[in-house]
Automatic annotation (TrEMBL):
<keyword id="KW-0378">Hydrolase</keyword>
<keyword id="KW-0227">DNA damage</keyword>
<feature type="domain" description="Uracil-DNA glycosylase-like">
    <location>
        <begin position="50"/>
        <end position="211"/>
    </location>
</feature>
<comment type="similarity">
    <text>Belongs to the uracil-DNA glycosylase (UDG) superfamily. UNG family.</text>
</comment>
<keyword id="KW-0963">Cytoplasm</keyword>
<dbReference type="InterPro" id="IPR002043">
    <property type="entry name" value="UDG_fam1"/>
</dbReference>
<dbReference type="InterPro" id="IPR036895">
    <property type="entry name" value="Uracil-DNA_glycosylase-like_sf"/>
</dbReference>
<dbReference type="InterPro" id="IPR005122">
    <property type="entry name" value="Uracil-DNA_glycosylase-like"/>
</dbReference>
<dbReference type="GO" id="GO:0004844">
    <property type="term" value="F:uracil DNA N-glycosylase activity"/>
</dbReference>
<protein>
    <recommendedName>
        <fullName>Uracil-DNA glycosylase</fullName>
        <ecNumber>3.2.2.27</ecNumber>
    </recommendedName>
</protein>
<keyword id="KW-0326">Glycosidase</keyword>
<keyword id="KW-0234">DNA repair</keyword>
<feature type="active site" description="Proton acceptor">
    <location>
        <position position="65"/>
    </location>
</feature>
<dbReference type="Pfam" id="PF03167">
    <property type="entry name" value="UDG"/>
</dbReference>
<comment type="function">
    <text>Excises uracil residues from the DNA which can arise as a result of misincorporation of dUMP residues by DNA polymerase or due to deamination of cytosine.</text>
</comment>
<dbReference type="InterPro" id="IPR018085">
    <property type="entry name" value="Ura-DNA_Glyclase_AS"/>
</dbReference>
Amino acid sequence: MNVDIHPSWKPYLQTEFNKPYFKSLTDFVKTEYNNHLCFPDGSEIFNAFNHCSFDDVKVVIIGQDPYHGVGQANGLCFSVNDGIPHPPSLINIFKEIETDLGIPYPKNGNLVHWADQGVLLLNATLTVRAHQAGSHQKKGWEQFTDAVIKLISEKKQNVVFLLWGGFAKKKKKLIDMSSHSILETGHPSPLSANRGYWFGNKHFSKTNSLLQQVDQSIIDWKLE
């Protein structure tokens, strides 16, 4: 696995790259990609970091696994490649934006426009084997992405963390709440959303309000 990551992250993460667990993780990922169909494309594994430099991080959205269907994952959590049908969670994200901000439902599900504005779209696990959800969990990715969350918490100020669902909420312990804002709600998946745990959370307008309070530019959540 080639760690093709934006130079702004390297001074902070080089110690992680040098640790034994990361060497084991790299060997595992290389073997998986050599022997199985895996996602996202090898060149997109670190897309979340390459579209959102360390200096630019204003908002962090935490996902769990990349999509495991063919052509879906592009290295940004909840995002899909251009022209790919929107998965159920993404549909519910866009519906909430529609009601929260009055923004029309987008045709395209690629969230790169958010990432380019300082939204770190971070999956806890950055790779997956095709059609096998969770297949690359507990191999070292979580240790790495936890280190990323701690790094942002310790080295930056006034970042808005969006924790959606039980898995993401467990990351709260890694964040200094005296320096950052945390917004929590249910997961946008139909299972959670249909029970009333997602819709009406207004996280998108609330995020922009929090950014304005600290003189940060707001996120344009519109995709087209």
